[in-house]
Each structure stands twice: as C-alpha cells, then as structure tokens.
Batch of 3 targets.
Target 1
Amino acid sequence: MKARGRVPEPDTEVGVSETLSFGRALRECREAAGLSQAQVAEGVYGTANLAALISDLEAGRIDPVSLGLLLRMADVLGVSLAEVAARAWGRVH
C-alpha cells in the first residue's frame, strides 16, 4: 500500500523503445517544419557539421543528453517539448 502524499520516484532509465519513439517524433516535427538535419544542427549547435548527431537522435541510436538540448531543438523546430512528447508517446502527463 502506498503512503499518502508520497510522490512516486520517476523512472531513471529511458528504454530503447522510448528513445526510438522520441527520435521518430523529432524527425516528424523536423519534416513538418521543412528543415533538413543540417539546418536543425545549425540552429541547435551553431554548426551544420553536427547533422550526424541529429540523425543519431532521430534514429534512437543515442539518447538526448540534456533538457537544454531538447528545449533548443523544440525551439528550432517551432514546437513545444510537450508536443514532441505527445507525438512520441501519445499523451503528456
């Protein structure tokens, strides 16, 4: 039985399927915005040379490394982070 008023601990690990779903959602948002991976890299990192990193994020090969990165990506894509999450997982808590 759960203690009253106790806040459950958030999951500390992101599973592969969650990473892949989030990456697909990022790709969908990028394509909807009409941007290339190089354009997103330029907007997020200040250089188009890191387009491979955007590709790896979209393919789920790597996890997003920080909330700041995700917020910058969402800003470049013209969406909120909540919108990306809703695309990835179908709902936002």
Target 2
Amino acid sequence: MTAIDTTPVKSPDVERSASAGPVRPRSGGRGRYAISEVAALTGLSAHTLRWYEQIGLMPEVERSHAGQRRFGEHDLEWLACLGKLRLTGMPIAVMVRFAELVRRGEETFDERREILERTRHEVLARIAELQGTLDVLETKIDFYAGARRASEGA
C-alpha cells in the first residue's frame, strides 16, 4: 500500500503553487478540520493521515485540548501537493526527504528544485511512453473498425 504523510510545513508559499486547487473553506471560518473531515476531503484514510505524520510527510499536526488532531488550511494544501507528488510515482522516501527540506526552509530551494526537476523528467518520459501506447491502440482500433466495415460489405 502506498501512503503519503503530510506534515504541515512552515514555509508554505513555495509549496502552495503545487496544490491541487482551492481548499474548501469551512463554514464559520474556523478553518480547522478533524481527521475524519480531512479523510473525507482528501480521500485518504485516517490511518494514512496518522502514518504520514509518523513518518514525517506531515509536520506535527495541531492538537485540540482533548488531544485530537486539528488540520488547518495549510495542511490541506500540503496534502494536495503530496497527492500530486504521489501521482508522479515519486517514492515515499523521496517525498519524506522533500518534506524535510521544506521544513528546513529557503536554504534548501536548490535541492528541492533538483528533486522536482528529476521527477518532471521521469513524468515526461512516462507521458511519451503512454503516448506511444495510445498510438498503438488507435491503430488497432482503426484496423478493427475497418475490418468490421469490410466484413459487413462482403
């Protein structure tokens, strides 16, 4: 099972641009979410969210006076970013490293950029491979559509 840990990050501005879109604001403007709400919003299980925090993909999540996790808007944005990184096929260990670098701050911009550039290269290679696969499928579909028409005309 692949899981992503999404620890809150203290330098969010750089990472926010990678989020999957606008975060759904909470009614009343409280902006704090229980783990079950985050699970519903992200599609990740509560177990996965806890695991992400354990392995360092998420910074330590704020807690209520009763000890319950309270996720903020920034946590949701970070989870969206991690979701995109996961879709690239980035290994969890590399994602954890990336999260560590984000927490360390601006002095790690170069290393973070290098990780993202390597990932972009891998994604572009996969896209090219999939395009070739799609071309084969299109050719086969056209062949069978033509063969069907030919047999119906005979």
Target 3
Amino acid sequence: MAEIYKRVAIGELQEKTSLEESDQIALEDAEGTKKATLNTLKTFLEKDTGWVTLTPDGNYEVVYGHQPQVRKRGNVVELSGGVRNTKNNIGGSTTEVRIGITLPEEYRPSKMVICPGYTNVDKVFQIHVNVDGTVTVSRAFSSNSGGYEAIQANTAIFLHAIYFTD
C-alpha cells in the first residue's frame, strides 16, 4: 500500500477526484488485490465519537485531572484516565481486579487487550480491557521488589490503552 501512496499524492486525489469517481479509485496490496476505495477510507476516517467520559463505580473515584475517557476513531479505540480505590489494596497477585470502569458496547474489544499501566508510587501493573467491557488490573510490582505487590488504597492508577475493534 505504501507504493500506491508514493504514486498518487493524497492532495491530488482530493483536488482532482469528484465524489462520483472516488469509488473508482482503490488502494491495492502488492498483488493487486483491492483493499478499499477512497470513499470507504474517507467514511472510516471521518467516524470519530469524540471523548466520552467514564464514571468509575464502587470504591473507585477519579484521580484529579485524569477523568477516565474513551474515544473511537474508525475502529481504533483509546482509553485514558486515572482512578483510585478509596478503601482497598488491589492487584498484588495474578488475580484480575475490576477497577470500577465498564466500557460502553461500541468501545469493547473482540478479544482481551493487555497493556502496561503505572501508579504514582513507582508500581507497574497489567491493564486488561476485557470483551465484556470491564477494565481490570493485576500483577502489580515495583522496581525494588522481587514479586507482586498490592497497589495501596488511594494510590493513583493511571490507564492508557489503544486497540482496534472489529
């Protein structure tokens, strides 16, 4: 696909292509298989939900200045924000612990997404974005420990995940 971009500049397509012709222009792979028309790509790229605010439930609250939010552009989802558990220590083992966030259905992955997260006290952990929309954490550890450690109550848990949906 990169070679097709080299042969035809995107600006030229916009300037010289009418809407009626845009279904006639296609991106192809190296074997010449049609992958998408210009109209399909344009529609895909224009779909943007904007940031949607997520409200944590249970013993979780928003970390000041880090309201949990989710956004979908085309089929790319970005989850960002911070929460803290006001009552319990969490994440000190391989057991997944829900952190008070459930994503609306349109933002859920088709298979579990795992990525790193961090706290404000030098702990790293796994974030799991699950197919049912729940967001969980597990396997917290710090740079000076030899094993898993719990994330203490009231510790800021920062989230950032980017993934594709179907």
